[in-house]
Each structure stands twice: as structure tokens, then as C-alpha cells.
Amino acid sequence: MDTGSLDALRQRIDEIKEDDLRKKALFALDSINDQAKLRIVTDALRALRRAGGEEKLCLARDIGRLTLNYNPGNPYIASELAISLTFLNSPEEVIVLLTSFFDQATAENITLPQSSREFLTVSLAHAYAHVGRVNEGIAALEKLRSDAPNVIEALSELYYQNGESERTISMLDGLPRLTPKMAQWLAKSYMAQGNAEKAGKVLEPFAENPKLREIFTEIMADRVPKLVTPMRFSPSASNFLERTLVFISHASKDAPLARKLVTLLCAALGCKKSDVRCTSVSGSRLPVGADTSNHLANDIIGSPVFIGLLTEDSVQSAYVLFELGASWIMDYSKDGHRTFPVLGGDVSYDILPGPFKTLHAIRTNNRSDIQQMINEIGTVLELPLLAPNYYEDELDELVKYRPPICTA
């Protein structure tokens, strides 16, 4: 064994504060070269991922890599490693890992369980799609010639992303039973072809299912055209949309954080508070007497930039979920619209709802992330950016902000 790698991993594991998790990870490290104990390793990798935090994810990744070195061709370890890399938003590494794994399996005549081959191929296809190589992801899935639900779901999604909604419809329409994800992509495909009626019929059986919270955003987004009244086409509404550059979706409890974000954007982009729609911030609120639902819907449709400020409170808000869903569908249907999912402080990536799980989310307490977002917003809005020293104080205020701790 590579004792240097083992010793380095052992030192990192020793720093884990949770006793049970630390013991489980150490036990796994002692088991990586024993095929009879690989279940111990996979259980530990899952526990590390569930614990959350980048350090534990990196630890799961590195233990997985070392285990795969000693157990090449093991699909279960390859699967766990691919999941860890996906959680770390490393699609290129997933592609390298899985293409090499499949090449090795072919060269050595390793027979993979069908379910493992399907899972790994779906992971590979999503990684391809994440880096813009959707056609390669589709080709990998089609080569499987499988009708397994996870394969059909992935194909449905990639066809849609590739602008081939008719292929999704052809594959799914008429199936006796749809999974929620199949229904999601079939409905979106109908919407892409302007057939809202069929999209609604596809979604209707799932409307009251309590297990479908993760696709609630998509369901609401597909209904946006029905919820927005013709007022949005009036001259006054048109003028109103033209001056709304950024929409910030947030929970009222997160008003202090939202306020710091608005202040930073105005300082960095040289815009006014009235250019930003943020209902909890003075100067960015709705006009007095405004029809709230219509104005917010119009803002989302007209704003080139949408920022979803995601916290434990905001993801529990039906309004925020509706706004997220509306923006998500606008990303697919309107050129020049960008959605930026922003996690408030140290909240877990696990809170990301529905389709936002596939997007790269940033944190308000990460300076480089926020700076990158400012640069990208400036590009979308075609606004000249001020030098960072002009808004350094505002950036510090946002990055260092921590919500107050409530005491009884």
C-alpha cells in the first residue's frame, strides 16, 4: 500500500470532530485493500457526503480514489467516487474517471452488472452535459439500449437540453407510467412546442403528490404563462420592466442579508436601488398600490438577472419557490436571462431545490464567488464595472455578515 497516502488521509480523518464519523472513516481506510470489506468503505463514503462540507467531500473523494486504485474495475467504488466528484462540481473529473473505467472494463473483459453500467453511464452523460458536450452524453445513453427508468429520465433531460423536445415527446408520450422526472421533461418539451394544454395534463396527476417537492419549482414555472395576466403587455408595464435589471428572490427573514447584497450590487455596478427588485429593501420595493403578483411576475420575465438568495427560511417559502421556478424556465426560453443561485452563508448545498441542484451555486461568505458573480452580472447587463477598491467595504459587509443567533 502507499503508506504516504494512507498516513495523510489518516491525519485528515483524525481532524473530524464527530466521533462516529471519524471511527467509520478510519475503519474504512483500514478496509480499502480487502474486497470482502468494501461495503464498509462505501458506507463511510456516503456518511462523509451526508455530513456535508467541502473538506468531508474532498475526503470522500480521496478515499474513493485510493480504494479504486486497489480495486480497479469495481463498479460500486467507481459509482461512489463519481458521486463525490459530482457533489464537488467536478464534471471534467467525472468524465476522465468513467471513460477510463469503461475502457479498462472493456480491455480486461470485465462484466459489469447492468444496473451499475446504467448508473455509471447516466453519471457520465450528466457530466458531459454539464460541460456542454450534450451530444456525447446522448450517444453514451443511447448506446446502452436500456429502458431502465433512470436512463429514460436522463435521455429525456438531455434531449430537451439539446433542443430536441420532439424526441423527448416521441419517447415518453404514451408510456403507461411516468416517473416524476419523466413527467417533468415531457411537460417542458410540450411547453417548448407551445402546447401548454398537454403540459398541464402531464403534470396534473402529480399536483398533490407530497413526494414531489423537488419538482414543485418546475410545475409552477410551467404554469407561469397562465398566472400572469395580460397586464404585462401594457405600455406602463413595459416601461416598468425596462428599468428592472436585477430581481432578488428572498425570504423576509433574510432582509438584512438581502439589503447588503443590494448595496453591493449598486456600488459595484453603478446602478440605482430602483434598478433592483428586492421587496424587503427600501428603494427596491414595489410601488405603493401595485398589483403584487403581476408586478413580481413581470419583473421576473423582464429582468435580465435573477438572484435566488437561498437559506433555510427561503426554501420553505412558496413565493420564493414560485419565483425560482419562473426564473428557471426563463433561462431556457429567453436569451440573455441568467439565474444566479446564491447560498446564504454556511447553509448546505443540500437545500438547493429542484432544477437548481444541477447549477453551480455560490455562497455569500465566499469573496471570490461573489466577485465572479459581480463580473458576470456586469457582462449580462453590459455595464462597465468599477474597480474592486471602489466597493471593497460593501463586499466585506456581505462576506462577513452572519445572521443573528436567536435566543429564548
In brief, what are we looking at here?
The protein is mainly alpha-helical and 408 residues long. It has helices at residues 3-14, 19-29, 38-51, 54-70, 75-87, 91-107, 114-130, 134-144, 149-161, 165-172, 180-192, 196-203, 216-222, 224-227, 235-242, 255-269, 292-302, 318-333, 367-381, 392-400; strands at 246-249, 276-277, 305-310, 338-343, 362-363.
Query: β content, as a range?
Result: under 5%
Using the CA coordinates, give the radius of gyration: 23 Å
Corresponding CATH architecture of the domain at 239-400: 3-Layer(aba) Sandwich
CATH topology of the domain at 239-400: Rossmann fold
Under the CATH scheme, which class of the domain at 239-400? Alpha Beta
Structural class: mainly alpha
Q: What is the CATH superfamily label of the domain at 239-400?
A: Toll/interleukin-1 receptor homology (TIR) domain
Shape: globular
Residue runs with pLDDT of under 50 for 5 or more positions: 209-242
DSSP summary: helix tally: 20
Mean pLDDT value: 82
Order of helices and strands: HHHHHHHHHHHHHHHEHEHEHEEHH
Give a short account of the largest sheet: 5 strands, parallel
State the distance separating the first and last CA atoms: 53 Å
Strand order of the largest sheet: 2-1-3-4-5
- Helical content stands at 55-70%
Tell how many strands the DSSP assignment holds.
Answer: 5
